[in-house]
Give the backbone structure.
Amino acid sequence: MKYPDNIVAVTALAIDYIGFIFYEKSKRFVGNANQEYIKGLKCITKVGVFVNASLTEINDKIDEFNLNAVQLHGDESPQFCEELKQYTAVTVIKAFGIDQHFDWTVLDAYIGAIDYFLFDTKSNSYGGTGIQFDWSLLHQYKLECPYFLSGGLDADNVKDALKANDPRLYALDLNSKFEVEPGLKDIDLLAHSINSIKK
């Protein structure tokens, strides 16, 4: 999200989290143009998305934008996540790209260092692909830590994501398939999909 009018429209929907990407190579990079506007947003959890940023950079953005959560989408170690949790009051979400070769045991070391995992489609680059991974792979996830599901969610499959009835599935990340262009959400499509989820 990076356009004020679009942010207003999104926050009017029944959503709990809104994301702002602070990775400069992303097409959705938020920059600092709307810093004061974003900082003033209330009644919604503001998530800063980072890729291999330093603790100092993340802490600065938390303060500058009044972030409530951070999503780490790079190669951040368990030790890094633990240190971040120790010195900030924000929720920590650690993202992992999933494919048939994913080693689920790497998640073990993050328990206690993060609040949630985010499972996305494996990619050679950082960030989303807009492609759905094989959700049956989630049967191999044996930990109790709740997770966000991302990767290729769209208006046609979003209800299917809930059919597994996995109590650890905490949230759905509705992103690229609900955009008019990078960083600009299709409000009508998003509203329709949110209503279908809640039925």
Remarks:
- The longest helix spans residues 187-198.
